[in-house]
Design goal:
The chain has 166 residues and is α+β, with helices and mostly antiparallel strands. It is 30% helix and 31% strand. The strands form two sheets. It has a five-stranded antiparallel sheet. Strands 6, 7, 8 and 9 form a four-stranded antiparallel sheet that branches.
């Protein structure tokens, strides 16, 4: 369990238990737009989410982002710290977007990367039209190291944070 403040934590994912919580996130058009690169992305069903999480858990530390509310801890998104590179993050519950939670989560993920002895943290790619994510990474000191086009032709930026500078 990783804490990111008294009311925010990153809990290692539990499969298959956490799949149901993620279904609404990966059916949300806004999540799909910013994570899949456009309006044509098909919503994820439970089977696709399970496949995604199984893939991630083989290559990354995968966490459910949880906030403490009156009735206890509730999952609002997920984040992964890949063994080689990449830090995909989704704030799936729209009530918690644009509240600084992603930034707090990424600070903790960066700390975790340091604990693991990493020299840097690199994003897989952030779509250029995803201004919120780009601002978040840049505000944390991530520097753009590359622009490229994904397989669908969407322009992306790759960011890196050198941990010896943090």
């Amino acid at each position: 369990m990783l804490t990111a403040g008294e009311n925010l934590r990153l809990r290692p994912i539990r499969l298959p238990d956490d799949i149901a919580a993620a279904v609404p996130w990966y059916q949300d058009p806004e999540v799909l737009f910013y994570s899949e690169g456009g309006e044509l992305a098909d919503p994820y069903d439970a089977a696709r989410i399970e496949t995604m999480y199984q893939y991630l858990t083989e290559r990354a530390e995968v966490y459910m982002i949880e906030v403490l509310e009156e009735n206890g801890w509730i999952p609002i998104g997920d984040v992964s710290l890949f063994h080689d590179c990449g830090v995909p993050i989704v704030i799936g519950n729209p009530a918690y977007r644009s509240r600084g939670i992603g930034k707090r989560v990424m600070r903790r993920v960066v700390e975790r990367a340091k604990e693991l002895g990493r020299d840097s943290v690199t994003t897989n790619g952030v779509y250029v039209f995803n201004d919120r994510s780009r601002r978040m990474f840049e505000s944390l000191g991530f520097a753009e190291i590359e622009k490229f086009r994904d397989d669908d032709g969407n322009e992306c930026c790759r960011y890196r944070l050198e941990l010896d500078r943090v």
